[in-house]
Amino acid sequence: MSDIIMLQPDSVAEMAVIEAQAHSHPWSEQALADCFGPLYRVYGYQDTEGLLGFAIVQQIVDEVSLLDICVLPSHQGQGIGARLLDALIADAQDNQASVIMLEVRSGNQTALELYQRHGFVETGRRKGYYPAADGREDAVLMNLPLA
């Protein structure tokens, strides 16, 4: 049995473990904790093994920003990211959002393809935005219009 749930601050330690394993430049536990407030929604993907992934969005008026989506590396490629994305898109629509915005590393082909399959389109780039093992890489800005 697996489920998308709304996470609470008591999930931060589990989120930090996933973040540290999945990202080359992970968010700190404090940065994750700071995402529990009135402007944020934090979704989790949980099954009998526990928390396997999460997504964080911030909504200001009718604009939703996808700040982080993260799946435990041992469970990537199983559709968990897509399930989280589906849930947050549906929730954004329920909360009268007109657009979901995000940025993603230009080298993260898997994520780019996931977002494109869900209807996100590239709207711009930030040159050299992210630190990378061999210097810097671009941030690809993407939007999903909802209205």
Topology:
Blueprint: E1 3-6, H1 12-22, H2 29-33, E2 40-47, E3 50-60, E4 63-71, H3 80-94, E5 99-105, H4 109-117, E6 121-132, E7 135-145
Please summarize what this structure is.
This protein is an alpha+beta fold and 147 residues long. It has helices spanning 12-22, 29-33, 80-94, 109-117, and strands at 3-6, 40-47, 50-60, 63-71, 99-105, 121-132, 135-145.
Q: How many strands, what sense, and barrel or not for the largest sheet?
A: 7 strands, mixed
Percent of residues in β-strands: 35-45%
Helix fraction, binned, reads 25-40%
What is the H-and-E element order?
EHHEEEHEHEE
Pfam family, one: Acetyltransf_1
Function: Acetylates the N-terminal alanine of ribosomal protein bS18.
GO molecular function: protein-N-terminal-alanine acetyltransferase activity
Family: Belongs to the acetyltransferase family. RimI subfamily.
Attribute tags:
147 residues; alpha+beta; Aminopeptidase; 7-stranded mixed sheet; 4 helices; GNAT_dom; [Ribosomal protein bS18]-alanine N-acetyltransferase; EC 2.3.1.266
